[in-house]
Amino acid sequence: MRNNLVSVFALLLGTLFLFLGNGLHGLLLPVRGAFEGYPTTLLGLIGTSWASGFVLGCLLAPKVVKRIGHVRAFSGFASLIAIIALLTGILVDPFWWVALRAVTGFSIAGTSMIIESWLNERATNESRGVIFSLYIAITLFGVVGGQMMVTLGDIGTPILFMVAGILYCLAMLPTTLSTAASPQPLKQVSLDIPTLFRTSPVACVGIVLIGIANGAFGTLGAVFGAEAGLASSTIAMMMSVTIFAGAVMQLPAGRVSDRVDRRYVLAALSALAALAGLMMFMLQPVSVIPLLVVTAIYGAAANALYPIAVSHANDFASPEDFVKVSGGLLLLYGVGTIIGPTLGGPVMTSVGPYSLFVVTSASHLLITAYAIFRSRRRAALPASARETYTTINPGTLTTPESLRMSPRASQAAAAPETAPQAMTEEER
């Protein structure tokens, strides 16, 4: 185990630098944009552009890697990300930012898929669970650490953009200097919406709505903070506390969903997220402690939804289809994150910064209503027939390739002949 973990240390170190850069650059752009007085609608399109590029990267990057190889593709993608981080500090213009963020999203999908495929290749049955957990933890800590770096410099200067570029360059070194053999070619990912919907209507519809809410908050949360008059340090803490709260909530919420109909858990958590959002809109707190408390509640509920929805879908699919179903749902989530900032920007422009939480609350209330509706249309699986809840990194922080690292995926691949068949239409 120790030798196996040492062999992937360089890859995990590169992952840390990559997500430190992602966290810093992703938060710096909307904060700087609000500082410059750019329209909220345009700032929302920055997130739309990134999400669009990311989804396209998940679909098309495997072809690039197959053509030129893992190392050259990784170096090319990472170089593009670093160059764009520096360019956005020089070309301080929202239209350039929107265009460049699409390239960044595509390239981040490519670099992430390459790292994840390398880790998957090096993982053994003994170490797979540990490596998967370490990878999830590193991505979360990397994003949070990067966001907190916003407090270390003046957002009105190019310095922080330069720091982001340095972090992306550092992410390149461990992989490009590694002597490890290149892994197998990346697997193509498909998005089969009809099959996903037949497998689980709640997961299919719910994950799009989760993506809308999380995409709106993830892109425009910093803009909301700046327009509400919050300090940069408070904005960074607000965005970070939602991620940590969601990570902490995942395990207890998942364990409850192993015993209770997952649709009820989705409905309850969505209702809690909607309530927290409405409290933000109605009370409009500006004091740091109340603001962080409410956003922590919001983050705990909102960021625990995605893995539960994926687990619910896999309850009704064959175990060997875990990667196919989960990967398709991740792409659907990406589609939602494209829609969220596009809707949130105009609403905030018309109503005010706190109306961001009207958009998230509307999405979460729709999840609650649809989950309850579907619970009346199809009986719940007995607890003994459900797949055990598996922690999955929520959102577009990782790609479908990361799902292949999951111990659940390897177990299904090891013994597909013993896996139960997917439920028939009558059983659904």
Number of strands: 0
State the distance separating the first and last CA atoms. Answer: 42 Å
Total helical elements = 16
Tell me, briefly, the overall form.
globular
Mean pLDDT: 85
Radius of gyration: 21 Å
Spans of at least 5 consecutive residues with low confidence: 415-428
Fraction of residues in helix: over 70%
In sequence order, what are the helices and strands, one letter per element?
HHHHHHHHHHHHHHHH
Percent strand = under 5%
Provide the structure class.
Answer: mainly alpha
Sheet with the most strands, sense and barrel status: none
Present the secondary structure layout.
Elements: H1 2-7, H2 9-36, H3 40-68, H4 70-90, H5 94-122, H6 128-148, H7 159-176, H8 193-199, H9 201-227, H10 232-259, H11 262-283, H12 288-302, H13 305-315, H14 322-351, H15 356-375, H16 407-414
Helix pairs in contact: 2-3, 2-5, 2-6, 2-7, 2-9, 3-4, 3-5, 3-9, 3-14, 4-5, 4-7, 6-10, 8-9, 9-10, 9-13, 9-14, 9-15, 10-11, 10-12, 11-12, 11-13, 11-15
Please supply descriptive tags for the structure shown above.
428 residues, mainly alpha, 16 helices, disordered C terminus
How does this structure look, described?
The protein is built from 16 helices and no strands. The chain is mainly alpha-helical. The relative contact order is 0.15. Helix 2 (9-36) packs antiparallel against helix 5, helix 9 (201-227) runs antiparallel to helix 13 and helix 9 packs parallel to helix 14. The chain has helices at 2-7, 9-36, 40-68, 70-90, 94-122, 128-148, 159-176, 193-199, 201-227, 232-259, 262-283, 288-302, 305-315, 322-351, 356-375, 407-414. It is 75% helix and 0% strand. It starts with a helix and ends in a 14-residue tail after the last helix.
